[in-house]
Write a structure and sequence with these properties.
Distance between the termini: 39 Å
Strand order of the largest sheet: 1-2-3-4-5-6-8-7
Number of domains: 1
Radius of gyration: 18 Å
Number of strands: 8
Order of helices and strands: EEHHHHHEEEHHEHEHE
CATH architecture: 3-Layer(aba) Sandwich
Largest sheet: 8 strands, mixed
Strand content: 25-35%
Structural class: alpha+beta
CATH class: Alpha Beta
């Protein structure tokens, strides 16, 4: 096994298969981060499409309650699938200059840690997560904004490894936040297993786009700061 830089970590899973975690830090509004998200869009769209499709199957009324889902109203089958693909593709290919001024103001002093996971013998990205810090968050607080694992590498513990990546790389943090769909039971179970609990304050103070009942807000606080 070759030597690697401090921003890379070897991990092993229950299958005894080796994987490599890579860490990148980038300003939230940088062209570099936008390019990375575009590169990861195929995997990202696949992962988030699974989540959104399951959510809409369980909460079909959401398309009438959430303005951001209104364009999906009345669609089903292949039409719905294609519309979800398009919506998610645009999110992953959103350059900074295409964002609203409100979004740019929110992200102006923020940055991301992007963590990618690769098989030991292949450069292909098998999973990734983004941790947003700075900007609106107090020092030591991060929000997991994106997390996905390729279907062929699920149930190997990679999701948990990504959630705990800041700890693996020795990055100080006091609190981790995450928001997901209430139908995303596998992810919620993983977060609970790793010590996350429901964040009632985040639910009460969530921005308008996070409609109550459509999202679940979770937090993890480091034991040393409880």
């Amino acid at each position: 096994m070759q030597n690697i830089d401090s921003d890379q970590k070897w991990i092993s899973t229950g299958s005894n298969q080796g994987f490599l975690l890579k860490l990148h830090k980038m300003p939230a509004l940088s062209e570099e981060f936008a390019a990375q998200m575009s590169t990861l869009s195929q995997l990202g769209v696949m992962c988030f499409k699974d989540v959104e499709t399951e959510f809409l199957a369980r909460f079909p009324e959401a398309v009438k309650q959430d303005p951001m889902l209104a364009d999906l109203d009345g669609l089903s089958g292949e039409e719905l699938s294609a519309a979800i693909d398009t919506k998610l593709y645009r999110i992953f290919h959103m350059p900074p200059n295409a964002m609203s001024e409100q979004a740019r103001a929110f992200l102006r002093n923020a940055y991301y840690y992007l963590v990618t996971v690769h098989e030991e013998t292949s450069p292909k990205v098998q999973g990734f997560a983004t941790f947003m810090g700075g900007g609106p968050f107090p020092e030591g607080e991060f929000k997991i904004t994106v997390l996905g694992v390729d279907k062929g590498c699920r149930r190997l513990g990679l999701g948990g490894q990504l959630v705990q990546a800041l700890t693996s790389f020795g990055i100080p943090h006091k609190k981790l936040l995450v928001t997901t769909r209430p139908s995303n039971s596998v992810a919620i179970h993983t977060y609970h297993r790793l010590g996350f609990v429901e964040d009632t304050a985040a639910e009460e103070n969530a921005p308008p786009q996070f409609i109550k009942g459509h999202w679940i807000h979770l937090k993890y606080t480091e034991p040393s700061v409880l």
